[in-house]
Task: structure prediction
Amino acid sequence: MNKKLAAALSGGAVLVLVLSGCSDDEGDKVNDWAKSFCDQAKPQIQKRADAHQIIISTAADSRPAEIQAADSKAFKDIADADRALAKAVETAGVPPVANGEQTQKDVIAELNETAVAYDALKKQVDALDPSNQQKFAEGLKDVADGLTKIEKMDQNALATLENGELGQAMAKQPGCQKPTPSAPKTPTGSASPKAGSTATATATPSGSASPKPKTSASAE
Result:
């Protein structure tokens, strides 16, 4: 993320806005943008949470083919959700923050870039040979290594929007709340490091926004 943009959206910049006085109109714009985005984002945030749960709920002792199918579907779902989130940011319009136009472009680009990375990870998983357990396990480890890099991208994609007043407004919107995964949760999964799989597949389902806002928009 561009350091200048991050600095512009830091607490200091937000404090200056507060001290200078934020009009009701500005507050309305912030809330309107948050509602517009979060209403569109809700099904995508749920989709990502469900995808993450599919990975961790696939038993560690499942057959390689089952693990492969679960991870492949999860990666595709997350990629699709990230693209839809990028579209939601575009549809919501320029966010009412400092350097809003550039921030919007950067967030959209990062979400789409992350989606492409998950597509590549899906292809990598699909190419594994589940008939050879040893090679499959080795290949799955490589997938996990690649996933570690993508995970950070996914977590940071929406982080810029989840700062300051806009982040607080997003945190209040039902559509950006942390979802409850629909898939059943089990102690271990295909993504578990011990299982030698894609354990760190994604960050927490809140995908999640910065600690203070506690939204679910960012990658989980």
